[in-house]
Design goal:
There is one protein chain. The radius of gyration is 17 Å and the shape is elongated. Helices cover 31% and strands 13% of the residues. It has a two-stranded parallel ribbon with strand order 1-2. By secondary structure, it is α+β, with helices and mostly antiparallel strands.
């Protein structure tokens, strides 16, 4: 059997890229949206309504996915519940959840900028 596999990788801000795609035209969406934890004070990682923000791009992802298509979305350990609720709210069915459990990270009382300067 001679099958030809065609892969097209799209990169960019999904809120802009998804809007340019036709309905039911994509087999899979893989994304790593901001975790919305205000990491190191970055503005891109903060939203007043995280669940609605996730729902806004997830609606578009569902629109462009073919029937039976899959979404793989990464989420932060402290905020993945907002992501999952938004995905369910727009019509996705949560089938599996993979977790990367780790025991390291920034201690809560650590001033990262001072630690970097050391």
């Amino acid at each position: 059997m001679n099958m030809r596999l065609s892969v097209r990788l799209l990169t960019g801000d999904c809120r802009s890229v998804l809007a340019t795609l036709n309905e039911n035209s994509i087999d899979a969406v893989v994304c790593d949206p901001p975790y919305l934890i205000e990491f190191m004070g970055k503005a891109f990682d903060r939203q007043d309504n995280p669940q609605e923000w996730h729902a806004s791009w997830a609606r578009e992802a569902l629109r462009v996915l073919k029937p039976g298509g899959h979404l793989l979305a990464f989420g932060g350990t402290r905020t993945h519940h907002r992501l999952m609720c938004a995905l369910e709210d727009v019509g996705f069915e949560i089938r599996d959840c993979l977790m990367w459990l780790y025991g390291s990270g920034f201690p809560k009382s650590l001033d990262v900028s001072k630690a970097i300067d050391k």
